[in-house]
Known about the structure:
It is a single chain. The protein is an alpha/beta fold. The chain is 42% helix and 14% strand. Strands 3-2-1-4-5-6-7 form a seven-stranded parallel β-sheet, with helices on both faces.
Amino acid sequence: xxxxxxxxxxxxxxxxxxxxxxxxxxxxxxxxxxxxxxxxxxxxxxxxxxxxxxxxxxxxxxxxxxxxxxxxxxxxxxxxxxxxxxxxxxxxxxxxxxxxxxxxxxxxxxxxxxxxxxxxxxxxxxxxxxxxxxxxxxxxxxxxxxxxxxxxxxxxxxxxxxxxxxxxxxxxxxxxxxxxxxxxxxxxxxxxxxxxxxxxxxxxxxxxxxxxxxxxxxxxxxxxxxxxxxxxxxxxxxxxxxxxxxxxxxxxxxxxxxxxx
Length: 261
């Protein structure tokens, strides 16, 4: 691990109180970054199967156990005013922004006949609109720092599944990534997307034990990934080592999509 790869850089990670976002935020902290934990709640979620005993808020863990620094900023990414305030707080605290990781997302199971219009709007509001809002308000600062945006999509972005608002939102995130990369490339701002497969987080509580066994069997590397696996990909994509990588989507899925697309 190159502990100084992001030393002194300021990184916003949305949805960083729990799950994948927490793993991403911790990895940037290990790399020496100033991490803004942007989430609707500071307390980490506990799952029935994964993260059953987490208690320490992500910002506290980063400050106590890594070379990095961290603050928590209460943020509802579906609310543009909340996002604008979070960006302003970040700049006031750390002087700028180098990386934005748009990870915040929600998932509600159900098909088109079961999911209400309100639920559709809730999911797309966080998963797609929130990604756009965070990018929009951070772009002026990222242009100044020649920074990068990392969006978090899903394997469901290309294969369907996960319910109409989730699959549609994640597909939108992938193409939003390409569009932002096209817009910002001339200003040396890179934009990439990570598409996770099945990761050990509390969001997987909806799965039965039979589901877990089935999904594990269908993953070429027969296990669920860890939040840290996604974090490793994020710190690479945000690093100088990826300076010629933009507009791409990286599957961190244990080979899930290799035999399904």
